[in-house]
Amino acid sequence: MLQSLDPVVLARAQFAFTVSFHFIFPAFSIGLASYLLVLESLWLRTGKQLYLDLFRYWVKIFAVAFGMGVVSGIVMSYQFGTNWSVFSAKAGPVIGPIMAYEVLTAFFLEAGFLGVMLFGMKKVGPRLHLLATAMVALGTLISATWIVDANSWMHTPAGFAINAQGQFVPAGSWWPIIFNPSFPYRVVHTVIGAYLTTSLVVGAVGAWHLLRDAGDAHARKMFSMAMWMAALVAPVQIFAGDTQGLNTLQYEPAKIAAMEGHFDSHPHGAPLVLFGIPDPARHRMDHAIEVPKLSSLILKHDLNAPLAGLDAFPANRVPPVSILFWSFRLMVGLGFAMLDLGLWSLWARWRGTLFENRWLQRAAILMGPSGFVAVLAGWVTTEVGRQPWTVYGHLLTAQSHSPLAAPAVAASLTAFVLVYFAAFGAGTWYILRLMARSPDAGEPEPAHMPVRAAGITPAPGVDADGPKVEVHA
């Protein structure tokens, strides 16, 4: 049975599974690192213990999420060699240095200052500790920038030449590669999505504790800050998504046609298909609910502007329509739900009922995981929409995989599923346990790391606080 499976499909499924698990954690830690920086800055500026309590509360959660993000990300790098060796050989001269820059400029920065941020406040002082927190937050942003840059180049390749061995190599300057046409739009959309994801998690935790104790000062502050973030950032994210859509229309028009559900071209204005059931086999949309010409207005700002449908592209160059159609609507629908939550919180704040509105707080809890679902739906839309290419227009996915038999890929995929659900399921459960406990007044720091460089037990007469002096009579 395994022999009858397609090894390319299995390899794609394996990468999709691991990247989906991985991206959950950076989408949280990118925003949470910046939130920690804001909390510590407010503590130093105001001197209020509440901000320090919240910092110590969330830094423990950040440490667990950051660790799981690192571990889950390492596995994906290995897959470039195990399952996608042809892609690595051909695109390595471009993708490889970009991934190396991410390690050199971002990961080392994060790793270098992470220990100071977690355990060093009493050792380096508040201001140097704030610098360490800022460096960790900066490192997460730089890391996201390089990773999105490598991915963007695969969608809109630029600044390259193909040598005699069929490899993509820089054609002179690296600037066109780094600042490829889709990169600015993608990195803005991704980072804002991470901030919005974090704000929804913080808001859900604050709402959970408010429902249990409406007078909890820590929960009130968390909930208020999170709702401000959702109200201000959600409309910005919708605008950023719109600009990325316009960029995608220019460089990947087949993806847009699939997202919109346009099987046929519309020379005099395309409708916006709100819902329907795609039928790729019959090349039609069944039971469609449409708004006439609205798609042309959104994408080209002209009611009568022509839009190409999937019939304008070769059948073997069309991405999977059904997946794109529904993942795009899931992402957009959640985006507008986040906007609604933010506007609802502004209304409650204006009426002075932000901390008493139980339905708003229940809605915030319900929306807590929505950021993760939205970013995963966005990545599915982005990556599935690039098919059948790995490097758009130049290297097909079917030409990029390693010469592996289906049973080998299936075995590693099965192992990943079992290990990931066990290990990261346990980690996620532990994070939820941490969130279930309300921050305390005088929240303790994370446990101190050992102060010795060797040995597994303290030396005689020494404990974690320093040497003991024994007095003998």
From TrEMBL:
Keywords: Cell membrane, Electron transport, Heme, Iron, Membrane, Metal-binding, Transmembrane, Transmembrane helix, Transport. The chain crosses the membrane at residues 15-37, 57-78, 98-121, 128-148, 192-211, 223-240, 323-347, 359-380, 404-432. It is found in: Cell inner membrane; Cell membrane. InterPro entries: Cyt-d_ubiquinol_oxidase_su_1. Residues 445-473 are annotated as: Disordered. PANTHER family: CYTOCHROME BD MENAQUINOL OXIDASE SUBUNIT I-RELATED, CYTOCHROME D UBIQUINOL OXIDASE. This is Cytochrome ubiquinol oxidase subunit I.
